[in-house]
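Section handout 9: paired folding examples.
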Amino acid sequence: MGWTFERQAGVTAAAGVVLLAAAVLTWLPGLQPWAGNSWLVLGEFGVVLGLAVAMFVRVARMWPTDRQELGWAMLSVPRAVLGGLLLLFVAAAVVTGSSVRMDGALQDAGARDGHYYAHGATPEGTRGEVEITRAQYEEVAESDTRAMEAGPAAALAVIAALVLAAGELRPRAGR
């Protein structure tokens, strides 16, 4: 495997760890400074998209004719590295799952003119914008931020594993 594959996978995994750490920090008391900021979402999207495109370019250039070769190449990656990436993926999935609200609870919190709002069930029984307290706002904003940070961390773990598998395939492509 070439050093560029290892570096790309390392940068990708490190970005995933940073996002997962930021997601876990939202459980600390108090509103996090990055909770509810749209620049964070745009930045994360840019990082994940850039790393995903780089991975797809690498894999597409050497895509095996037999798709099972990618699975065999994954088995050639050192177990400790795959274990670390699997741990990152599972931890990110657990954090994401713990913050996703499927019961119609409040989500997408915002503040305007000193009042706090979120999308949730209205008194008429439909979904719409409702006014909430500051405590509810902080809880919803942190939960939304947690999901937006941990979800891309799981994707970055998969991208890093695919880059390493592509690196293992590269020597075989010359045979």
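Moving on to protein 2 of 2.
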Amino acid sequence: MGKHKLDGGGEVEVTAVTTIFGAVPPRIDGEGRERRLTFSKPTAAAPLASIDFKFKPTGNTSSFLFGIKQICMQKDFQGLYVGLKDIDGSISLETEGFDNVRLLDIATSSLTVLFDANNSSTGARAVAPHAPFYSEGEVELRSGSEAKLGIVDHPGANFRLELQNGATDRPNFLERVRMSSDFVTALVVSKIDAKGRAISHTPLEGVRWRARSFARISWDGNNPKLEEARHQAMEVESLSTISSDSEFDIFRNTSLTVADCMVQKFNDGLFSARGLFERQDFNKPTGKLTPIRSRGVIYIQFPVIAN
């Protein structure tokens, strides 16, 4: 926390940064072949991550707005499916195209899944008028007035418990899920011109945090049981200044839109790859390693169990 100079003689003092990080265990929802392992949204009373910045601008701040931006970098993502017998093969669902890539992260107002004539998912359209800011857009403040801006985040995902293996034409069952993502959330000041257009975005202070998720499923016949299940977030460090390193270029980029955000790109990949996966001819197993890849997401179908 500290004071930050603005162009034109203005200044912003960050007076407090408050964080809450929690844990919410995953659960199994649905029935039959539509059952899913859900790393669900926490309640408002117990968020996975809550970050608030309290600050006070002084001096000439007439050409500045304030908001919150967030960067997400996925470190690991895998859903591993195995058959009841070795001959049933296995499937590894991975997001190779997103690992260690920094992307703008926003909370969407809505996310509409699009389907083709065969009811196969082909993509998703995110709506977020506040982009590139995380949730509510920029706010204008009078000099000397104290304000608080923050976010509530709940990163997660859903996994079907059963998939048909195109290499063996046999059902495979979810055995293990692991997910890991790193985040940086920052208070950003936006300098605007006379027409209200952003000239620059300058990050003032931030919080680095991470989310880690894991679940193992044991099967007793057709009955799944969750083991070693966890879904939690934790703070890594508080950033009293934001360096000029390329790691934080997204904070300074004024041209990013909802099309550039993690939610849009990640769901585009998941839905596109799933559509290709579901359109396989499962009556004609390939008998060999059969990857289905689209937009950074891949289903790797093995004819034998992968160790």
